[in-house]
Amino acid sequence: QRIGIEVPESAKMVLLQEEKFKSYFNQLLFVLKEYDRVLGRVIPVIRPLLKPHLDDLDKKIQPGMLMLTWQSMNIDGYLHRMHTWLSKFEELVNKINDLIENRVESNLKAISKTLLVDIQSDSTFTLEQFVNMQEKVTKRKTLMMDAKNLEVERAVEDLINVVLSFPMEDFGSASISEETVQKLRDHYSRLMYLAILNTTKNSFHTLKKRLTARTSTGGVVQADKPFFDVNVELSLPNVTMNPSLEEIQAAINRCAINVLRCSKRICQWGQDREQDIARLQTFHSLIAQDREIVKVVLLLTGSVEGTKKQVHDYLLTFMGYEHLWKMDKQAEYKKFMATEPDLEAFDNELKKYVEMEANIQSIPAVHNIGCMCLETTPVKASLRSEAIAWKSQYSKNLHSQARDEMHSLQDMMKDTLQKLDRPLTDLDDVRDVMAVLKFIREKESQIDYMLVPIEEKYHLLSKNGVHVDKEEFDDLNHLRESWKKVRSQAMVVSDKLGGLQAGFKSTLTENVKVFVKDASEFRDDFIANGPMVQGVPPMDAAERLTKYRRLFEERQRKWDSYCEGEDLFGLPITQYPELEACKKELELLDKLYGLYVNVVQTIKGYGDMMWSDVVAQIETMTETATGFQALCKRMPKQLRDWEAYGELKKTIDEFFEVLPLLQQCSQKSMRPRHWESIMQVTGKKIPMEEAGPSVETCKLMHVLDLGMVAFAEDVEDIAGGSAKELGIETKLNQIIEAW
After folding, report:
1. CB burial string 654-664: b at 16+ within 10 A, e below
2. Contact partners, residue 466, CB within 8 Å, separation at least 6
3. Pairing state between β 228-235 and 372-375
């Protein structure tokens, strides 16, 4: 109007409604932005499921795009309806997103991040601890994963129900094809499979990494703390691991199988969970077919194979001590003692085992190989025990030798002191004390040679760590003091002897005179009444020999005592020819009558033998008789004229003559008729029964009493005939049997 241009009415009308149109424009623009915002929140995988709702929303937008103009009267109503529809749709989207975020994706992530093994990088385990712990962890995690799997499955079903049940203004509720619904289920079932697959892979990789892990710090490659505690033990005849490599590998395999079997307890979707799980399909078949899973499982089944050579080489280092348990301690010690070792040789042996014990002790308590921490404490204890046993073998015997020598020396000193303390009452006491003083003088020059070796042996034992009781060391320290006491006492006794010498010398002279007379009388009595008297039966002579031998022994003691006394006081040694003659004769008589008595008693003992046992003893009796005959022949010539010698020889010869007859009569061919013939020839009887000589009552003495030697030819004929008759009888029986 200011420039003179006419404004159309329509423009004026628009100008008047400027604020209104701008408001509509802004509101419509906001609605479109809200539409885009809400649609942007729809998860792509859910979009097919929301297609009816999206189509319905598009239909509600269509009027604004096709029918409404700026002059339409229902723009406000349209805007109100659009806000309402978008708000309801956003509510549906919020519910869906909440379900997916909180019940689906969070559980899928939880499953995907779950480890089916409990692997700690700063801890080690025994094999039993590892197996038990992994089984518990796997079981617990499997139950948790199956619960989350079921929760996700139910969440997806709830999501579908939410979409299907969400009201639509024109159609009541949405109509969605089963194919679309199933695609959504398959999508999230696939995600569940991938989550389980991922946790299985991660578990395997974590286990594999822990078993073979290495870390690098400052350019230095360092191993993580080993996984398994393994004892190195001495299992004769080898050094072994406990548990063994095979047992460790079996435990790892068992753990891997348990991880793989987890998916056997996680059911696939769309099945009735009330059924037994063995009838349900699980994710196991899908997981087990994955190539990467198979590859990792194969790697785990040989995870400790690479350490086998290292372990073998390490265990071989302990075989340097194998002689400790393979060699015989007693045999080696005998060889050692056969070399007549000196103290230096003992010292070398003990030092060798002391050094060996120190070397064993210096072995590191642990040695790491791969995933294993080898504990050497058990094998060190065993090796040390073996080394101590070897050391003890030498030290024990050396200790015993030193102790015995010390005790022997102590006993010698104690015995010497006791002898020196005896009262000097007679000549025997003086003689004994003089002998002790002489013994002390001889030992005086030897005592150092006796004490020093003992002291050196105890020093050697102490130096090599052998336990010796304090009492023994005290006894050792007192040895020299004890010898000083012996010497001091010897000087006292020697002085005392000097004062008593005159009285004992006078007594000795008187006793010798009396003993000379007694020796002459003993000789006269021996000649008149002893075993050499003519006509005395041999057995009586043997009894007399025993009597006079005892009487002579009494005089022999006095004889020795008086001679020693005369020597002690420097007197002439008195001779006793009567006793010397008796001594020679008694020695000869003892040989003769000793053999005579032995022969008589032996033959008498044979006589008490049952006749049934004679056959088995014939050879023994023959050997015994041969021995007697040889001893008889070796008798001195001067004895052969004595009556006892003749009786002895006759007895032995008669026994030799009867032995062949006894052997013939003991043949199996002898029948009762043959024994009757022998008894008829000799004119004497023996106890008989139907089969021959009585088994219970007939003894060898009965057969000897037959006097068969006098009828030797007749007895030989009868016994020989019995053998021939037995031969004929045997042949007849063979002919009869043949016929």
Report:
1. ebeebeebbbb
2. 350, 391, 392, 395, 399
3. parallel
Question: Could you tell me the two tokens for 185?
Answer: 């289920």
What does DSSP say about strands 220-223 and 214-217: parallel, antiparallel, or unpaired? antiparallel
Paired with 230 in beta bridges are 374
In whole angstroms, give the CA distance from residue 375 to residue 229. Answer: 7
Structure tokens, 164: 């299907």
How many residues does this entry show for the chain? 739
Residues 251, 258: Cα–Cα separation, whole Å: 10
- The answer to whether the bond into 237 is cis (omega within 30° of 0) is yes
Reported as a single tens digit per residue, the pLDDT across 607-618 is 777 777 776 777
Instruction: List beta partners, residue 167.
Output: 173
Residue 150: CA count within 13 A, CB half-sphere = 12
Number of separate helices (H) and strands (E) present in the chain: 25, 10
Helix (H) or strand (E) holding 692: strand 692-693
- Model pLDDT for residues 459-500, shown as the tens digit of each residue: 777 776 677 778 877 777 877 888 888 888 878 777 776 565
Containing 148, the helix (H) or strand (E) segment is helix 127-165
Q: What whole-number distance in Å separates Cα of residue 220 and Cα of residue 215?
A: 8
Record the tokens describing residue 253, joined without a space. Answer: 């395999």
Establish whether the linkage from the previous residue to 660 is cis, with ω within 30° of 0.
no
Within a 13 Å sphere around the CA of 234, how many CA atoms are in the beta-carbon half? 20
